[in-house]
Specification:
Number of strands: 5
Radius of gyration: 26 Å
Structural class: mainly alpha
Largest sheet: 5 strands, mixed
Shape: globular
């Protein structure tokens, strides 16, 4: 803090090759948060891990990102991140950690990139604070510790940002093309989510470049055309390939990548309209019970271990909380209710919003005195870039009908950039007694501490009252003391400013560590004392994990008496009955959340993972022994039952209806032809994920022989919790 003002100046050429010793511990912190214990996550998100296992087996599967080794259906995302994961698994061997490693490294890389981007213009201290804020934003390591896409997506977009900034500094059009092409690459990671940064790219290039309007329009048009070409390149190849020569495009309704991109993974995310429509194979929406079970069964990995523990947490998850400005905060997957204060509601605020008040004060300080017509300084231009990233994305998450908590990582770069740049700017205004602007620093500290107390208050039974009271008290005291000492210039004031920043980062740092402390969830990553549930939010009131909506799920072959029909899903207190909830690849979803989340055990007994990828060895032995050359080991309704067997054996297992069982892939006539050709004869049906496959399932039941459960059903206690519920094994042989 003492030398902050002098460090605001841009680094000179003589300093470019020096290693910033302050950056080293920041990178080590990021490495610890992103890498430590990822080797304990055996399967990660089993849906994606199964795809990597399949992609390792042939170039055909690799190119199309096939979920199963047989090339029946793809996963519900473009392939670029999974290409990288497959290469990692090829180099290091197929493990949970080897498919997580690329995302963990991307999380660390994002911290370094943000340091480079902010430091050049706002100074080295700003770069340091920005990098540290990025590293400690809880949702960043929570996502980076999984094989979900978002960490790699953010890293790629930051690479594109670096290219754009370089294009403006060097006035070279080639870098503009490279920046927009990189966004096209990001599109092939997570489709339209990559385009959320486009307003920032367009605004910044228009404002920052000193060329004629004619050239600006021409350059941006050319760059956008290139971006679109790169974006749809894979989709055009896939959609142009005959359907019988490639896998079905998972989670689409017309077997089209472009339909998936601009429909289900596009505008439907904003509207929340994710019902199954538009297919030629008409199908009813899944029932509430089917959808809820299909989704929650995949986020219960850690429930199996925690159900045996006597160390259960007892805090009400259905407790009604009011957001600033009012409004019940329950919502699908704890994403709150749409509205201007949504990012301050529980379930979202503890993932991303710890520093938002300070960021708002920083924005005021950075743009104070700016005239609309300019001229703008480099700092103001880059501040405008980060603002044009922050605002549209924040608006989207405030109004979107459907998303998951971990998507909020898209907000981490602009929040961290403003936290770093703002800390330096507000400190400078404070030290220079710059009128009303000098009050922005203590004001930002006070309001940020108040929000952090609000964020932590539902977790008092988990973390205790002391840290909550400590952050509140220290925030108030430091803000008041800084306000009182505004006219004094001595080392004590510098230390007080540094102490305030430490206080504001203390609880985000703890929250960022919770996936390590409590266990994470690779299907629905989130941070917080309930991180292993993958649902965010305060801990459960359940005294036994079997009371939770996450329980009662068994792997194929479990002999538990609880059938899938017993998994009744109830809406949380105050929530809408009509909310739609979906997992990646899910479909028709008029369903409700469970009233309470599964209780948690001590951290030593928790495991990471999104899907309890248990394999019933007795079932596997039976299927292997009785396979007479069929292509598929067995067929099942959805990917949840299939993924563990693909991971363990590397053999094709058919998820007849794709991820959630609702994709219109099969018809009765097509299935008959497959059986006659000897491609499949065993079918495991659990009653889950029927969707548009109801006619196929009906035909299977009417034309098959039921295999006695004694031949394949396991009685092992280890199979009491798992992904697919109680089911029946059938055999069909047609001549």
């Amino acid at each position: 803090m003492k030398h902050m003002n002098s460090e605001v100046k841009e680094e000179r050429t003589s300093n470019k090759n020096r290693i910033d010793l302050f950056l080293v511990p920041i990178v080590l912190i990021a490495a610890f948060l992103n890498l430590f214990k990822i080797w304990t996550d055996k399967y990660a998100n089993a849906y994606y891990t199964a795809a990597v296992k399949s992609m390792l087996q042939s170039f055909h599967n690799f190119f199309y990102a096939s979920f199963d080794p047989g090339g029946y259906v793809t996963i519900d995302k473009p392939p670029v991140v999974f290409w990288i994961q497959t290469i990692s698994a090829k180099i290091f061997g197929f493990h949970g950690w080897s498919v997580i490693l690329p995302q963990a490294l991307a999380g660390i890389g994002s911290v370094l990139l943000l340091y480079v981007l902010v430091k050049r213009t706002f100074g080295v201290w700003a770069g340091r604070f920005a990098a540290l804020a990025m590293a400690l934003t809880p949702i960043v390591p929570a996502v980076s510790r999984t094989n979900n896409i978002d960490s790699m997506l953010v890293f790629t977009l930051l690479v594109a940002t670096w290219m754009l900034f370089r294009a403006v500094r060097t006035a070279k059009f080639g870098w503009v093309l490279a920046a927009f092409a990189m966004i096209g690459v990001a599109f092939n990671m997570k489709m339209l989510q990559a385009y959320m940064v486009l307003p920032a790219f367009y605004v910044f290039y228009v404002v920052a470049t000193k060329i004629t309007w004619k050239k600006k329009i021409a350059f941006l048009t050319t760059a956008t055309t290139l971006m679109l070409a790169v974006s749809v390149s894979w989709a055009v190849v896939v959609d142009s390939t005959s359907a019988d020569k490639r896998p079905y495009m998972g989670s689409s309704q017309t077997n089209s990548v472009l339909e998936l991109a601009f429909g289900y993974n596009g505008i439907n995310r904003l509207t929340g309209n994710t019902s199954v429509t538009g297919s030629s194979h008409k199908q009813p929406a899944q029932t509430e019970q089917q959808t809820a079970s299909s989704e929650t069964k995949q986020s219960s990995n850690s429930s199996a271990d925690s159900s045996q523990s006597s160390n259960q947490r007892k805090s009400s998850s259905s407790q009604k909380m009011q957001a600033p400005g009012g409004g019940n905060q329950n919502g699908m997957f704890n994403t709150g209710n749409p509205g201007p204060f949504r990012l301050f509601q529980k379930g979202l605020s503890d993932q991303i919003s710890w520093l938002l008040p300070f960021v708002i004060f920083s924005i005021v300080g950075l743009f104070a005195g700016v005239k609309f017509k300019g001229p703008y300084t480099t700092k103001q231009k880059e501040s405008l870039f980060w603002l044009a990233w922050l605002l549209p994305v924040a608006v989207f998450f405030s109004i979107a009908g459907f998303f998951h908590q971990y998507y909020l990582i898209m907000l981490a770069p602009p929040i961290a950039a403003f936290a770093g740049a703002g800390a330096v700017a507000l400190w400078s205004m404070y030290k220079q007694h710059n009128g009303w602007k000098s009050w922005l620093l203590p004001g930002g500290i006070l309001t940020t501490a108040a929000l952090q107390v609000y964020i932590m208050s539902p977790y008092v039974s988990s973390i205790g009252a002391a840290p909550i009271a400590g952050v509140g008290a220290l925030g108030v005291i430091l803000a008041l003391v800084l306000a009182v000492r505004k006219q004094r210039k001595n080392s004590l004031t510098n230390y007080l400013g540094a102490a305030a920043m430490v206080v504001l980062l203390a609880m985000p740092a703890y929250w960022a560590m919770t996936p390590i402390i409590y266990g994470g969830n690779s299907m629905l990553p989130s941070a917080g004392p309930d991180s292993s549930s993958g649902m965010g939010g305060p801990p459960s009131t359940a005294t036994n994990s079997k009371q939770s909506g996450f329980n009662g799920m068994q792997p194929p072959g479990s002999s538990s008496g609880n059938s899938s029909s017993n998994n009744q899903m109830q809406p949380p207190s105050g929530s809408s009955n009509s909310g739609q909830m979906q997992m990646p690849g899910g479909s028709s979803n008029n369903s409700q959340m469970p009233n309470s989340f599964s209780s948690k055990s001590s951290s030593s007994k928790r495991k990471s993972g999104g899907m309890n990828a248990e394999v019933n060895q007795k079932l596997l032995n039976y299927l292997t022994k009785n396979n007479t050359g069929e292509k598929y080991l067995f067929a099942t309704t959805d990917s949840t039952s299939a993924a563990p067997y693909i991971i363990k054996t590397g053999k094709p297992v058919m998820a007849m209806g794709g991820f959630s069982g609702s994709d219109p892939i099969l018809t009765v006539s097509k299935l008959k032809a497959m059986i006659k050709k000897g491609e499949v004869k065993y079918f495991y049906l659990s009653g889950m994920g029927k969707g548009g496959q109801s006619d196929v399932i009906t035909w299977i039941k009417e034309n098959s022989k039921e295999i006695p459960s004694s031949k394949w059903q396991s009685t092992s206690s280890s199979a009491q919790q798992g992904p697919s519920g109680n089911g029946t094994l059938y055999e069909i042989t047609l001549k």
